[in-house]
Amino acid sequence: MVGDVISFGLYQEYRPWRRDGFESVNMLSYCYVCTIADELAEPQLESHEISNGMTPVWMDIDAAIQHNLDTMANSNKKGLSIERETFLLKLIKQELL
């Protein structure tokens, strides 16, 4: 059974975006706290996620944070989204766990 959904916050990014005829992007990431169902649907990856070799896995939050920190320090193939995701993982750990 799925329970209540509670707002956790809003992460706003404004940065240059020189693609598709645009000069900037203003991205709003709405974050929520919720319970999940016992059985989950199969993830549906976007084409860029598939081409980057991404695969969904369940892992401990500390392992996820460390993986992202290692990727930011050592990979030349990373997007700016990993900075947002790492910030949010750290905030979740600090405020919710």
Question: What is the strand and helix layout of this fold?
Answer:
Layout: E1 5-16, E2 24-34, H1 47-51, H2 61-74, H3 81-96
Antiparallel strand pairs: 1-2
Write up what this structure looks like.
The longest helix is centred in the C-terminal third of the chain and has 16 residues, at 81-96. The chain is globular. The chain starts with a strand and ends with a helix. The chain contains three helices and two strands. It has a two-stranded antiparallel sheet with strand order 1-2. A hairpin with a 7-residue loop joins strand 1 (5-16) and strand 2. The chain is of the alpha+beta class and 97 residues long.
Compact overview of the structure:
This protein has 97 residues and is an alpha+beta fold. The protein is built from 3 helices and 2 strands, in the order E-E-H-H-H.
